[in-house]
Amino acid sequence: MSGLFAEPGMDTNPPTTPAHVRRLPEVIVNRIAAGEVIERPAAAVKELVENAIDAGAHRLEVSLAGGGVDRIIVTDDGMGMSPADLALAVDRHCTSKLRDETLVHISTLGFRGEALPSIGAAARLCITSRPRGESGAWRIRVEGGKVSPVEPAAGAPGTSVVVEDLFFATPARRKFLKSARVEGRHAENVVRRLALAVPQTAFRFVLDERVLFDLPAQDMAARSAALLDASEADGFLEISGERDGMTLSGFICPPSVHRSTANGQFMLVNGRPVVDPVLKTAVRVAYRRVIEPGRHPVVALMLTVPPDRVDVNVHPAKTELRFADEASVRSLVIGTIQRALEHGAGDVGVRPVLSSAPRQARIWYPPEKGAVPPVPAPAFHAPTPEGARFAEGRLQFGDAPAARTLPPVAMPSSGTGWDLPQTSANAEVTPPHAAAMAPAQPIAADHPLGAAIAQVLDTYILAVAADGSLVLVDQHAAHERLTHERLRAQFLSGHVQAQRLLVPDVVDLPRAQVDLLLARQPTLEKLGVEIEAFGGDSVLVRALPAMLRSSDAVNLLRDLADELEADENGAPDEMAALDGRLDAVIARMACHGSIRAGRRLSVEEMNALLRQMEETPRAGTCSHGRPTWLKLSKADLEKLFGRR
């Protein structure tokens, strides 16, 4: 029929030019695909551990040699595989985890059927598996993509996977690996994140014959504490939130516990460990006002999202995903964490990291009960004047006293307002009598910072909590946070006062950034930034916040536009370009308007400061993210003195 429509003289035969496109061998195809799935030893470990978890393992052991390049062994006590399953498991895109073809309701960690074929294409793979209830095990080997027949073997119930000489078949990839120490650390981080996903499964991780952790089956709180390793905090803050059918739970550390990298952030979405930029940005925004710049908080978050509102089939590694409503997820994470961080000081403290004295250097102490106190040697101790206690007495060698004790004071039932009673910096405090070291009344349990007993170096407040712990407070840092919160509440209670520019500035921006700024025009006006369209790709700036009167409008708008474009779901009041600058000004005002170090405080002023810290949100850190108070328990003091 085609000849009916052919023009006279047209050649209907195909050209005889030889084809340049050829079909690659299956082995080469597998090796190329392996580069996406198995990019480093940690990726191979991740895939194998996920398979073990999906197999219902109750105990799982991971052992690495040479950072995982020389050898990886993953052993589990899961359901095991039959000979037929073993033969299919090393074939690409064969899986037992997908029950339908919609790729929506995925309840397992693995589902793509690519891991084992990819590992077998790039390394020497040996799988030994014995199904539960069977009397014998079976084994299959794959070397550089070449599959050997399934054969009988000896093995315990479950599956043991041995990967040796990783990337021997793809030397180009092996050449770009890091040192064994670096690769081993990446693998450890991967296993830690997977261990958090299934706290009911026992995990053991061995690197170069050294056990790095051995975790029994635990609840989520115990597993989070073991994996986050934030021993310097008194405890975790438990969080819980719900929004638009999504739920968020988990544990976060107080702002005083932070790290130089984001390795301390564990995030699970529907039980799957992920490294998601939306969640990481939300955590950063939630902690921004209470943590030091450049530091990263320590969190363990478990987010549950309806399966039809999240896509996990984004990348072969399955660590990235896409949310149908990123703005809602972001709001849920930020709001839930910020509510947990808005507690006053005292709920979760900061304990200095203390080391015990070497055993050979420990000091023997006589029994505390019934022991006769030693008589001080007159040559080294002068008589203490009657009524003087702590460091009020005359010290040897002409030293000036560095601490002042306080007279007894009744514990106030509530805060005394924002402004502390004023006392002259040179005012003297009359030393109390010998029985006045403890508060006159029992310390109320609802006052976690306790009662002030002394001021050290005219800078630090010493208090005793209800449980007998010693609390140390930096008076300047603490009052700085109180002043900061008061000033911020004043500025943001309504519209921030704007200062109109004498000559409006014209800012030229890409059209997409202009649209982003104009779409958020009402929010910007509440923050004191008045803009309007100026035709084409320009924005006219008519006013800036009065607090930022020295700011450059052009640079401010450009920075703000860049941040909004990078995070299109973000709000202007979350961006460092604007809100960060406003907060920096408030922090400077709070710093200059706070009690200075070196000022002597009365007992009423100290206790008023403690009560306000307990009631003020985010009072655990100052405006610069440094801790405002520390806590030393009995165990901590015993470590300092070598008693334990």
From TrEMBL:
Which Gene Ontology cellular-component terms appear in the entry? mismatch repair complex
UniProt keyword annotation of Nuclease present: yes
Q: Which UniProt keywords apply?
A: DNA damage, DNA repair, Endonuclease, Hydrolase, Nuclease
Provide the GO MF annotations for this entry: ATP binding; ATP hydrolysis activity; ATP-dependent DNA damage sensor activity; endonuclease activity; mismatched DNA binding
The protein's matches in InterPro entries, at most eight in alphabetical order, are given as: DNA_mismatch_repair_CS, DNA_mismatch_repair_MutL, DNA_mismatch_S5_2-like, HATPase_C_sf, MutL/Mlh/PMS, MutL/Mlh/Pms-like, MutL_C, MutL_C_dimsub
Ranges of residues in domain MutL C-terminal dimerisation? 452-601
**Domain of life here?**
Bacteria
Please give the Pfam families that the UniProt record associates with this protein. DNA_mis_repair, HATPase_c_3, MutL_C
All residue ranges annotated as the DNA mismatch repair protein S5 domain in the record? 224-342
Q: Name one GO biological process term.
A: mismatch repair
Q: Does the keyword Ligase apply?
A: no
Function as written in the Swiss-Prot or TrEMBL entry: This protein is involved in the repair of mismatches in DNA. It is required for dam-dependent methyl-directed DNA mismatch repair. May act as a 'molecular matchmaker', a protein that promotes the formation of a stable complex between two or more DNA-binding proteins in an ATP-dependent manner without itself being part of a final effector complex.
State the similarity comment: Belongs to the DNA mismatch repair MutL/HexB family.
What protein is this chain from? DNA mismatch repair protein MutL
